[in-house]
Amino acid sequence: MSELFEDDVVKKTEPIIEEKPLETIEEEEVKPKKVKKPRKPLSEERKAQLRENLKKGRLTSLEKRQAKKKGKELVKIKEEEVKQETIIKKKIQNEEEKERQLEERLEKRIRAKMEKEQEEKRTKNEIERLRKQVEELRANKREVREVKEVKEEVKQVTKPIDIPKKQVSFSKFSPYQDQMMMNFGRFRNM
Predict the structure, then answer these.
(1) What is the mean pLDDT of the chain?
(2) Contact 177, 170 (CB under 8 A)
(3) How far is the C-alpha of 96 from the C-alpha of 94, rounded, in Å?
(4) How far is 33 from 35, CA to CA, in rounded Å?
(5) What pLDDT score does 114 carry?
(6) Coil, strand or helix: which one is 17?
(7) How far apart are CA 140 and CA 134, in angstroms?
(8) How many CB atoms lie within 10 A of CB 180?
(9) 119: Cα separation from own chain's centroid
(10) How far from 50 is each of 41, 57, 89, 99, 121, CA to CA, in Å?
(11) DSSP of 64-125, one letter per residue?
(12) Quick check: 123 pLDDT over 60?
C-alpha cells in the first residue's frame, strides 16, 4: 500500500511540461502587431472646451478633496471630543467615588467618636452612680453601727426575763384544754 501512495506523491511533485510543435511556435512569433488608428485632429473650439472641462473637473475634485479632508477633520475632532468627554466623565466618576468613600470614612469616624463619647458618658454615669451607692452604703454602715451600738447598750442595760415554763400535761379530752390553748397562745405572741 505504501508503494501506491508513494507513486501518487511522486506524480504530483513532478512538473508537467507540454511540448509544442515547432510550427506553432513560429506562427505565434510571426503575427504582426496591430497598429492604432491615428486620432482625428481636434479643432481649436474642441480643445478649448476640453480644457475648460478639465479645469472644471480639477476644481470640483479639489473641492471634493477639501470637503472630504474637512469631513475627516470634523470626524477626528468629534472623536477627540468624545474621547475627552469619556475621560472627563471617568474623572468625574472617580472623583465622586472618592468623595463618597471619604464621606463613608468620615461617617464611620463620626459614629465611632459618638459611640465612644456615649460609652464614656455611660461609664461616667455608672461611676457616679456607684460612688453615690458607696457613699450611701458608708452612711448606712455608720447608721447600722450606731443602731448596733444602741442595741448593744440596750441589751447590756436590760437582761431578758426568764419565764418559767410549766409543764402541764393535758390530753385533748381533759377539761383544762381551754387553759392549755390560752397558755400556748401567750407564749407564742412573745
Answers:
(1) 77
(2) yes
(3) 5
(4) 6
(5) 94
(6) coil
(7) 10
(8) 15
(9) 30
(10) 14, 10, 57, 72, 104
(11) HHHHHHHHHHHHHHHHHHHHHHHHHHHHHHHHHHHHHHHHHHHHHHHHHHHHHHHHHHHHHH
(12) yes
pLDDT at 122: 92
Q: Which three cell numbers stand for residue 79?
A: 472623536
> pLDDT tens digit string along 23-59?
555 555 556 677 888 888 889 999 999 999 999 999 9
Q: For residues 124 and 116, is the Cβ–Cβ distance under 8 A?
A: no
- Average pLDDT of the residues in 107-133: 92
pTM passes above 0.85: no
Q: What is the dihedral of CA 179, 182, 186, 188, to 10 degrees?
A: 110
Question: Quick one: CA dihedral 42, 45, 50, 54, positive or negative?
Answer: positive
Number of residues that make up the chain: 190
In whole angstroms, what is the distance from residue 75 CA to residue 67 CA? 12
